[in-house]
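> example.struct
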C-alpha cells in the first residue's frame, strides 16, 4: 500500500448523539449505516469485491475462498452477489467451526483443559453454534452447569468455571468481563483508581455469587471427577482498604443491577442436598441460577449490550466499546445510541447470533474499505459543519451530565444513609445466625448421639430378639430329639450368647434415656436461638426494604448518569476527531493552494527563463553589430586620418609650389627676357596646377572620409544605443528570472511546509476513522485462521476433503432420493467437514504457541517474532504444502504459459485478489530470470505466504 496515498485518503464518520427516530422495524443493517453515517459532505465508497470476499470469508468461515471461487465471484455481475455470498458462508459447516473456535478462545483464553477434554468442549460449542443456540442460552449454561457426568452438555459447559479452578475471585472477574463487559479486578479491595465507574460494591456483588460455588471431587465409575457444588449464599460485608472502618454490605448482585431478592431460610433448612464429604451440595436458592436468569432474560441492558458489543467485535476486530471489557462512561461507545439499540435488537431477536452477524456483514459500514480514494481527502473540511453542530450541543450535554451526576450523588447519599441504618441490625442478624448455627450444631450433636444410642439399642434388641427366637426354636427341636447331644451343646452356647446380649440391653436403654434427656437443653437453646434469629430477620426486613428501595434509585440514577456521561464523552471524542479532520482538511486546502502557487510560480519562472533565453541572441546580435560598427568606424577613422595626412601633405606641396612660383614670377619680372626662367615658370605653373588638382582631390577624399566617419559615428552610436538597450532589457529579464526563481523557491518551501503540516495534521485521522468504523479495521488472523488459511490456499484442505468425499461415496453412497433432500445434503456437508477437520486439526498445535497469546491472557494482540519467521521459512510441512500438487497455486503457475495468467493464479490463489501491473511485471521478471520454473513457482508462493498482507484480513 502506498503510504502517501493512504495519507490522502482518510475522511470522517459521524456519531449520533441521540437515539435514532427511524422505523423500529427497519433492517438492522440500515440502522447501523444510519447511526454510523459519515458527516454530511463526506462520502465513503464500498470496498472492492476482492477485499469484501476475503474479509467476510475469513470472518464467517475462518478461511478465504479457493481461487476458483474467487474468480467466479469477481466475474459475477449479479448486484445481489454479496448478500448471496454471506448466506452461503453462513450455511457452510465452516461457519459453525469458526465461530465455535472463536468462542473457545474468547471464553477460555487458551487455558489448559484440566477437567474437560478439549474435544468435548469444542463439540459442545460446535453443536451450540450449529443449532444456532441463542447467546443468552449458551451464556446461561456456562453460568449454571454443574459438571455432572450424567449430562454431557452440562459437563462441557462447566469447563468455564471448572478450568478456572472454581476460584471465586477469578470466576467473578471473568464473569464480569465476558458477560457484563467490566473488568473489575482493580475493584476487589477498593473502588478502581483507574475507572471511576468500577466500584468495589459491583465486584463484591459478583463475588457474593461466585463465592458460593466450589469444586469437589467424587468417584464416578471408579474415576475421580471434579464437579461444582454450591453452598447457601450469604451477604458480604466489606470495607475499602483506603477507608478502614467504613463498612458496607451487599448481597448477590449483577453489575448495574439491584441486589437479588432471596427468601430468608433458617440455617439447616436451606439445602436440597446438604454439604457432605463427596456430596455435591444443592441449595434451595441457587445464586448462580438467579444470576443466570436475571442476566439472560432479555431485561438486563448491561448483558445485552455486552453481547452485542462482542459479536460486533467478531466482525470488525474491535467493539463499539473497546477494549471489550472496559465498558464505562469514560470509555464510551463510538455511538452510545447504536450500542443501546443493538442490545435491544439482539434481545428482541432471542439473541440470534447468526442473524445478527448476517445483518452486520450486509451493512455498508462493514463493507467500507481499508483504504479510501485520494480524492476523499478533499472532503475532510466538510467535517466543520458537524463539528460546529456538536460544539453548539455541548453546553446542553454538559448541563445534562452535571444534573445526572448530581442526582446520582444524591441517590448515593440516600443509599449510604439507609445502608448505615441497616448495618447494625444486619450485624445482629449475623450474630443471631451464628448463635443459632452454634446451637443447632450442639443440638445436631445431641440428636446424633441420641440417634446413635437408639440405633445401638435397636441393633442389640434386634439381635436379642433374634437369639431369643432362635433359642426357643432350638429348644423345641431338642424336645423333639432329646438324645441329640449336638443340639444340646448348640442350645447351651446360644443360651450363653442370649443371656450376654440380654444383659447389655438395660445399659443401652439407660443410654437412650440419658441421651433423650441430654437433648432437652440443646432443643431449648436452638429454639431460643431460632426465635432470636427470626426476630432479627424480621427486624432487619424493613431496613433491607429501605436499602433496596434506595438502591433501586441509585441504579436508575447511576444508569442515567452513565448515559449522560457516555453521550458527553462520546461527543467530546467525536468533536476531537472532527476537529482533527477539519484541521487536516484546512491543511489540505493550504497544501492545495501551495501546490497551485508552486505551479503558478514555476510557470512564471519558466516564462522568465524563456524571455532571458529569447533576449540573449538579440544581445549577441547587437554586440556583433556594435563590434561591426566599431570596426567600420575604425576603418573610417583610419581613412580620414590618411585623407587628412594626404590633404595636409598636398597643401604643403601646393603652398611650396605656389610660393616657389611666386618667387620665380618675381624673378621673371625682374628678368623679363629670360626665356628659360619663363619656361621654368610655366613648368612650375603646371606643377602648381597639378598640385592644386591633387589638393582638390585630397580635399574631396577628405570630405568623403569625413562623411564616412560621420556615418560610422552615427552607426556606432546607434549600435551602442541598441546594445545598451539590449543589455538593459537583458538585465531586466535576468532580474525578473532571479525574482521569479526566488518566488518559485519560496513557493516550493511553502509547499514543503504545507505538506509537512498536512502530514502532521492527517497523522491521527486514519486511526480515528478506523476506530469510528468509517474505514475497515486491519485485523490479523488468529492462529486458527492462519492455519486453515494456509491449508486452503495450498489446497491441502480441499484435497483432504475430496478424499473424504470419495471415501464416503464408496462406503456410504447417497441414494438418488437422498441427493435431492437438502437436509440430507446439509448433514453430509457437516460430516465431511468434521472428517476433514479431524484429519487436519493436529496442525493447529503448531500455530498456537507461535502466534497465540499466553494461556489465560487476552488473545487479541498482534506481534511478530523470529520464531514465526523461522517456522514459515524452515517449516518442512509448509514447504511440502507449497509443492505443486492438487491444482494449487504452485502447480497452476508452472502450467501457465502466459506470465500474466501465472501472476493472476498466484495473487488470486494466495491473497484473493488480482495482481497490480507492477506485480505482474515482477512475477514475469522473476519467472524469466529463473532456470527452474518449478522452484521459482514455489518461491513465489512461499513469498506471499510469508508476506505481511497474508497475515491480515484485507
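> example.seq
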Amino acid at each position: 500500500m502506498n503510504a502517501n496515498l493512504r495519507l490522502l485518503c482518510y475522511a470522517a464518520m459521524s456519531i449520533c448523539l441521540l437515539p435514532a427516530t427511524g422505523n423500529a422495524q427497519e433492517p438492522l443493517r440500515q440502522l447501523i449505516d444510519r447511526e454510523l453515517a459519515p458527516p454530511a459532505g463526506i462520502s465513503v465508497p464500498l470496498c472492492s469485491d476482492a477485499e469484501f470476499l476475503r474479509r467476510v470469508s475469513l470472518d464467517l468461515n475462518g478461511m478465504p475462498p479457493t481461487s476458483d471461487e474467487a474468480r467466479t465471484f469477481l466475474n459475477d455481475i449479479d448486484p445481489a452477489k454479496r448478500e448471496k455470498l454471506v448466506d452461503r458462508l453462513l450455511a457452510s459447516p465452516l461457519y459453525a467451526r469458526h465461530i465455535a473456535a472463536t468462542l473457545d478462545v474468547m471464553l477460555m483464553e487458551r487455558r489448559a483443559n484440566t477437567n474437560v477434554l478439549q474435544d468435548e468442549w469444542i463439540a459442545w460449542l460446535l453443536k451450540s453454534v450449529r443449532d444456532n443456540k441463542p447467546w443468552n442460552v449458551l451464556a446461561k449454561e456456562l453460568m449454571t452447569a454443574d459438571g455432572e457426568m450424567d449430562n454431557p452438555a452440562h459437563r462441557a459447559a462447566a469447563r468455564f468455571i471448572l478450568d478456572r479452578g472454581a476460584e471465586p475471585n477469578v470466576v467473578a472477574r471473568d464473569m464480569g468481563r465476558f458477560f457484563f463487559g467490566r473488568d473489575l479486578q482493580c475493584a476487589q479491595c477498593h473502588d478502581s483508581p483507574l475507572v471511576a465507574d468500577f466500584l468495589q460494591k459491583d465486584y463484591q456483588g459478583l463475588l457474593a455469587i461466585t463465592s458460593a460455588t466450589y469444586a469437589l471431587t467424587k468417584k464416578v465409575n471408579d474415576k475421580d471427577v471434579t464437579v461444582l457444588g454450591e453452598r447457601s449464599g450469604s451477604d458480604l460485608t466489606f470495607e475499602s482498604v483506603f477507608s478502614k472502618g467504613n463498612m458496607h454490605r451487599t448481597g448477590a448482585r449483577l453489575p448495574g443491577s439491584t441486589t437479588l431478592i432471596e427468601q430468608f431460610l433458617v440455617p439447616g433448612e436451606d439445602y436440597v442436598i446438604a454439604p457432605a464429604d463427596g456430596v455435591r451440595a444443592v441449595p434451595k436458592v441457587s445464586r448462580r441460577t438467579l444470576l443466570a436468569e436475571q442476566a439472560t432474560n432479555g431485561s438486563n441492558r448491561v448483558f445485552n449490550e455486552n453481547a452485542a458489543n462482542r459479536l460486533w467485535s467478531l466482525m470488525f476486530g474491535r467493539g463499539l466499546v473497546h477494549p471489550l471489557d472496559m465498558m464505562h462512561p469514560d470509555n464510551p461507545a463510538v455511538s452510545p445510541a447504536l450500542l443501546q439499540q443493538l442490545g435491544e435488537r439482539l434481545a428482541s431477536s432471542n439473541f440470534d447470533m447468526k442473524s445478527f452477524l448476517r445483518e452486520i456483514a450486509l451493512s455498508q459500514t462493514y463493507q467500507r474499505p481499508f483504504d479510501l480514494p485520494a480524492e476523499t481527502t478533499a472532503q475532510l473540511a466538510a467535517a466543520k459543519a458537524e463539528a460546529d453542530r456538536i460544539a453548539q450541543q455541548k453546553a446542553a450535554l454538559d448541563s445534562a451530565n452535571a444534573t445526572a451526576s448530581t442526582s446520582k450523588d444524591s441517590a448515593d447519599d440516600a443509599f449510604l444513609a439507609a445502608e448505615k441504618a441497616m448495618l447494625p441490625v444486619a450485624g445482629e442478624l449475623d450474630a443471631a445466625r451464628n448463635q443459632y448455627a452454634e446451637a443447632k450444631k450442639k443440638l445436631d450433636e445431641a440428636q446424633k448421639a441420641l440417634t446413635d444410642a437408639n440405633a445401638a439399642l435397636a441393633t442389640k434388641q434386634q439381635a436379642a430378639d433374634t437369639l431369643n427366637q432362635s433359642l426357643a426354636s432350638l429348644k423345641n427341636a431338642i424336645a423333639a430329639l432329646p438324645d441329640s447331644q449336638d443340639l444340646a451343646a448348640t442350645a447351651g452356647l446360644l443360651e450363653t450368647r442370649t443371656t450376654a446380649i440380654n444383659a447389655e440391653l438395660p445399659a443401652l436403654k439407660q443410654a437412650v434415656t440419658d441421651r433423650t434427656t441430654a437433648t432437652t437443653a440443646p432443643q431449648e437453646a436452638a429454639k431460643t436461638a431460632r426465635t432470636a434469629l427470626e426476630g432479627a430477620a424480621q427486624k432487619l426486613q424493613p431496613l433491607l426494604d429501605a436499602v433496596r428501595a434506595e438502591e433501586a434509585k441509585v441504579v436508575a440514577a447511576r444508569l442515567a448518569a452513565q448515559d449522560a456521561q457516555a453521550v458527553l464523552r462520546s461527543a467530546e471524542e467525536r468533536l476531537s476527531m472532527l476537529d482533527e479532520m477539519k484541521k487536516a482538511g484546512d491543511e489540505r486546502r493550504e497544501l492545495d493552494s501551495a501546490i497551485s502557487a508552486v505551479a503558478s510560480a514555476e510557470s512564471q519562472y519558466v516564462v522568465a527563463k524563456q524571455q532571458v533565453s529569447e533576449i540573449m541572441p538579440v544581445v549577441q546580435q547587437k554586440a556583433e553589430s556594435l563590434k561591426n560598427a566599431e570596426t567600420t568606424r575604425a576603418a573610417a577613422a583610419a581613412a580620414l586620418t590618411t585623407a587628412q595626412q594626404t590633404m595636409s601633405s598636398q597643401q604643403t606641396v601646393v603652398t611650396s609650389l605656389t610660393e616657389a612660383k611666386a618667387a620665380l614670377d618675381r624673378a621673371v619680372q625682374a628678368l623679363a627676357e629670360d626665356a628659360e626662367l619663363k619656361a621654368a615658370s610655366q613648368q612650375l605653373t603646371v606643377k602648381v596646377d597639378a598640385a592644386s588638382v591633387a589638393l582638390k582631390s585630397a580635399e574631396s577624399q577628405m570630405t568623403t572620409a569625413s562623411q564616412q566617419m560621420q556615418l560610422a559615428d552615427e552607426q556606432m552610436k546607434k549600435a551602442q544605443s541598441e546594445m545598451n538597450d539590449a543589455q538593459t532589457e537583458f538585465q531586466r529579464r535576468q532580474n525578473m528570472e532571479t525574482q521569479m526563481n526566488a518566488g518559485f523557491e519560496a513557493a516550493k518551501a511553502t509547499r514543503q511546509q504545507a505538506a509537512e503540516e498536512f502530514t502532521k495534521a492527517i497523522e491521527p485521522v486514519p486511526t480515528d476513522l478506523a476506530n469510528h468504523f468509517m474505514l475497515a479495521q486491519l485485523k490479523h488472523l488468529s492462529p486458527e485462521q492462519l492455519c486453515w488459511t494456509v491449508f486452503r490456499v495450498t489446497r491441502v484442505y480441499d484435497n483432504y476433503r475430496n478424499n473424504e468425499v470419495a471415501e464416503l461415496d464408496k462406503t456410504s453412497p447417497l441414494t438418488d432420493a437422498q441427493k435431492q433432500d437438502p437436509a440430507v445434503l446439509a448433514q453430509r456437508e457437516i460430516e465431511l467437514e468434521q472428517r476433514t477437520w479431524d484429519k487436519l486439526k493436529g496442525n493447529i498445535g503448531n500455530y498456537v504457541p507461535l502466534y497465540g497469546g499466553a494461556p489465560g491472557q487476552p488473545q487479541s494482540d498482534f506481534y511478530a517474532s523470529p520464531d514465526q519467521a523461522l517456522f514459515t521459512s524452515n517449516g518442512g510441512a509448509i514447504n511440502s504444502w507449497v509443492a505443486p500438487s492438487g491444482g494449487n497455486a504452485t502447480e497452476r503457475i508452472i502450467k501457465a504459459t502466459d506470465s500474466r495468467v501465472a501472476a493472476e493464479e498466484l495473487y488470486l490463489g494466495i491473497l484473493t485478489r488480482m495482481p497490480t501491473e507492477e506485480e505482474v511485471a515482477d512475477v514475469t521478471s522473476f519467472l524469466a530470470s529463473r532456470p527452474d520454473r518449478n522452484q521459482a513457482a514455489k518461491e513465489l508462493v512461499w513469498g506471499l505466504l510469508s508476506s505481511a498482507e497474508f497475515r491480515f484480513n484485507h
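> remarks
The longest strand covers residues 213-220.
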